[in-house]
Amino acid sequence: MRIEVPINSERLGAVHLFDTVDVYELDSGLEKSVSEVDLGWHQVRHVPFDEINEIERRMAIVVPCKDERLKLLKGVLSGIPHDCLVILVSNSAGVPVDRFEMEREALEAFCRLLDRSAIIVHQRDSGLGAAFVEAGMPELVDDEGRVRHGKGEGMMVGVALAKLTGRDIVGFIDADNYVPGAVHEYVKSYAAGFAVSPSPHTMVRISWSSKPKIQGGELFFNRWGRTSQVTNRFLNLLLSEITGFGTEIITTGNSGEHAICLDLALLMNFGSGFSVEPYEYLNLFELFGGLAESPHPEVMRQGVRVYQIETRNPHFHEDKGADHLQEMRLQALNALYQSPICGPRTQEEISAFLGGQGTSPADDATAVTSYPALANLDWNRFLERLASVPTFEQFEFIESAHVVTRAPISFPSVEGDDEGHRREARPA
Ligand code: GDD
Question: Given the CA of residue 89, which atom of ligand 1 is nearest to it?
Answer without folding.
Answer: 1
